[in-house]
């Protein structure tokens, strides 16, 4: 009997223990986690430290903005540099005061003298506000270099004009970087610089390396172009010239995955604009190695777009001759020279000259005899891209 009572007591105690455990578990579930407990137990000094850190970060940003140099020079060339270059006889003839060109030390014309590029050197302070031109003056300088010098200086060889403008534009870029110029002013400056370098890549094509180096022009153009396209992305619009320069970037870098990706990241309304849609079609024809379609589409480009595309045209025409040499390789097959000239967007004499360079026969009846066995690659340096600029020249004539 006692044993039975003990069993009952044990059962009751067990039920009480289980109830106590459940209440304990519920309290644990409602209790804060370790991270929450730490957050709730934050001491006042910890909260004060976080506030102090945020204030220090904001202050450092403000100090950083205040330490960025701001130019105050209101002329295209700082007065100190103008005096130095006059005394050292380092003025370009495009900068000399009219009537003093033959003097032992010509005078500089303040309205034509432009700050020249100088490499950063140890001990040289290039951040003096008096030597830096603000964005408005930089834009005025670029407009002068492009419109009054590059376009209008017909009495000088254009290679000399190019080298002068190229150097002064590097000085403009240097001032922009030091002052961290951004926004609409930056875009307007970069658009004109990109326009100049693309035109120069076409106009100086084939010049001797001692006068013009296409690889240097290309390196600077790619840098300016990348900077400009990034500005379009980071600066609030609208950007009225974005369509044109996005298409120029793709046409100049035809076949580049990076250039194509830049286009595909654009909003759909931009991708469907006329210039960009045409550039995408040309890029697709290039990737598909369809030179006939590419050259046909190229007739719809503007003169500046043709200047961007022109460096790919010689390889495109080479591909066309190679494809036709395989497709029409037959003893009895004759292809009209005039028809081939039309496909290549060249005149008949240049077409015959190009065929001869690749080993393609043109008979006396002005018929092309294609043969895959006869097709050969010309020696390096034998073909000059400049000789086959007729499509670009024709487009420039129409635009004028």
Sheet with most strands: 3 strands, antiparallel
What is the gyration radius calculated from CA atoms? Answer: 35 Å
Helical region count? 18
Output the strand order for the largest sheet: 1-3-2
Overall, the morphology is globular
What is the residue-mean pLDDT, rounded to a whole number? Answer: 85
Low-pLDDT segments: 1-10
Strand content: under 5%
Terminal Cα span:
122 Å
Structural class: mainly alpha
Q: Give the H and E element order.
A: HHHHHHHHHHHHHHHEHHEEH
Q: Overview of this structure, please?
A:
- Helix 16 crosses helix 17 (348-357).
- It is built from 18 helices and 3 strands.
- Residues 1-10 have low confidence and may be disordered.
- The chain has helices at 2-30, 34-40, 44-67, 79-87, 135-150, 158-179, 183-203, 214-234, 242-252, 257-264, 268-271, 274-287, 291-298, 303-309, 313-327, 337-344, 348-357, 390-399; strands at residues 335-336, 361-362, 367-369.
- The protein is mainly alpha-helical and 400 residues long.
- A hairpin with a 4-residue loop joins strand 2 (361-362) and strand 3.
- It starts with a helix and ends with a helix.
- Strands 1-3-2 form a 3-stranded antiparallel beta sheet.
Give the secondary structure arrangement, pairings included.
Elements: H1 2-30, H2 34-40, H3 44-67, H4 79-87, H5 135-150, H6 158-179, H7 183-203, H8 214-234, H9 242-252, H10 257-264, H11 268-271, H12 274-287, H13 291-298, H14 303-309, H15 313-327, E1 335-336, H16 337-344, H17 348-357, E2 361-362, E3 367-369, H18 390-399
Antiparallel strand pairs: 1-3, 2-3
Helix pairs in contact: 5-6, 5-7, 7-8, 9-10, 9-12, 9-14, 12-13, 13-15, 14-18, 16-17
């Amino acid at each position: 009997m006692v044993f039975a009572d003990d069993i009952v007591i044990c059962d009751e105690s067990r039920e009480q223990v289980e109830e106590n455990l459940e209440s304990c578990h519920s309290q644990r579930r409602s209790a804060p986690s370790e991270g929450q407990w730490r957050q709730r137990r934050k001491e006042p000094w910890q909260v004060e430290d976080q506030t102090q850190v945020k204030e220090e970060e904001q202050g450092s940003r403000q100090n950083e903005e205040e330490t960025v140099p701001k130019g105050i020079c209101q002329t295209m060339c700082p007065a100190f540099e103008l005096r130095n270059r006059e005394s050292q006889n380092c003025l370009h003839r495009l900068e000399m005061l009219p009537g003093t060109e033959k003097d032992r030390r010509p005078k500089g014309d303040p309205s034509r003298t432009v700050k020249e590029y100088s490499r950063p050197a140890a001990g040289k302070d290039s951040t003096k506000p008096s030597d830096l031109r603000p964005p408005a003056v930089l834009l005025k300088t670029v407009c002068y270099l492009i419109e009054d010098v590059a376009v209008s200086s017909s009495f000088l060889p254009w290679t000399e004009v190019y080298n002068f403008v190229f150097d002064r534009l590097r000085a403009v870029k240097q001032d922009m970087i030091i002052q961290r110029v951004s926004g609409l002013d930056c875009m307007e400056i970069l658009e004109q610089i990109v326009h100049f370098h693309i035109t120069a890549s076409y106009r100086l094509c084939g010049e001797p390396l001692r006068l013009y180096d296409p690889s240097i022009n290309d390196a600077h153009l790619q840098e300016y172009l990348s900077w400009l396209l990034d500005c379009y992305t980071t600066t609030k619009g609208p950007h009225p010239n974005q369509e044109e320069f996005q298409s120029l970037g793709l046409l100049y870098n035809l076949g580049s995955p990076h250039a194509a990706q830049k286009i595909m990241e654009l909003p759909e309304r931009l991708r469907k604009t006329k210039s960009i849609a045409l550039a995408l079609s040309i890029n697709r024809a290039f990737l598909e190695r369809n030179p006939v379609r590419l050259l046909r589409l190229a007739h719809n480009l503007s003169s500046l777009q043709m200047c961007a595309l022109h460096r790919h045209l010689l390889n495109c025409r080479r591909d066309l001759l190679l494809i036709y040499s395989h497709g029409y390789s037959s003893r009895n097959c004759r292809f009209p020279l005039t028809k081939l000239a039309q496909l290549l967007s060249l005149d008949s004499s240049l077409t015959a000259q190009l065929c001869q360079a690749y080993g393609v026969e043109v008979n006396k009846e002005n018929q092309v005899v294609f043969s895959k066995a006869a097709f050969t690659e010309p020696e390096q340096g034998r073909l000059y891209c400049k000789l086959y600029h007729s499509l670009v020249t024709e487009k420039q004539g129409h635009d004028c």
